[in-house]
Amino acid sequence: MEKLTYDQIVAGDGYLSRELRNDIPKIKNGVYVNFAYTDYGGDFFDKVCIEFFKERYPKYCICEDTCYYGQNMILWGKVAKEFLKETESYLLGFEDIEQFFSELEYQEKQDFIDNCSYDDLCRELGIDKDNVKESNKVRLYEALYDNTYLDCGVSFYSNIDKAVEDLKLGQPKFKFSWDEFEARQGQKFLGL
Predict the structure, then answer these.
(1) Residue 57 C-beta-side C-alpha neighbours within 13 Å
(2) Measured between alpha carbons, how far is 24 from 51 in angstroms, rounded to an integer?
(3) Is residue 94 part of a domain?
């Protein structure tokens, strides 16, 4: 999220294509807010804001798709001013965006878990999938999700070791270390 002026937008600031810049209305003393994310940059809050404003205030925003499954959006006018005012002390303070955030976060987490192949994951980690309790399976998915999906700047495996150890329940150690896993195919396997 970035606050911009019209002159800054025209000068090339913000994450917007040339075509999108040309479609932005010039408002005297106007306030503009730029949101942007991809699989490799931006953050989940920008994604939430883009979805929220496209749905609730389509007349006050323009959005475009980008490479790496991302989007750029510019918000303007009274909605942009109100958003900046309401989020000054609490980022999720605008209208019901906090609830919208929670719902989208839950849906993203469910989609991630639904698309994760548990059999492949166990095979790659050297875990006997038939000896894993269902509650530990969910904990592994949650650890993977929490450490890979929402925040681009997070260490992929920071909390996964604990979940995997809980999963193994006395099974033999990994066939290879996390460093080897990551070097061999960790990011490819997890779809990162």
Answers:
(1) 20
(2) 19
(3) no
Mean pLDDT score, 73-94: 95
Q: Which domain holds residue 49?
A: 2-89
Considering the domain architecture, whether residues 11 and 50 belong to the same structural domain is answered as: yes
- Look at residues 82, 110, 112 and name the one whose alpha carbon lies nearest to residue 94: 82
Evaluate whether 133 touches 139 at the Cβ level (below 8 Å): no
Inside any domain, residue 136 = yes
State the average pLDDT for the chain. 77
Find the mean pLDDT for residues 123-147.
Answer: 69
Indicate the number of domains in the chain. Answer: 2
Q: Report whether pLDDT(185) > 80.
A: no
| pTM listed for this prediction | 0.68
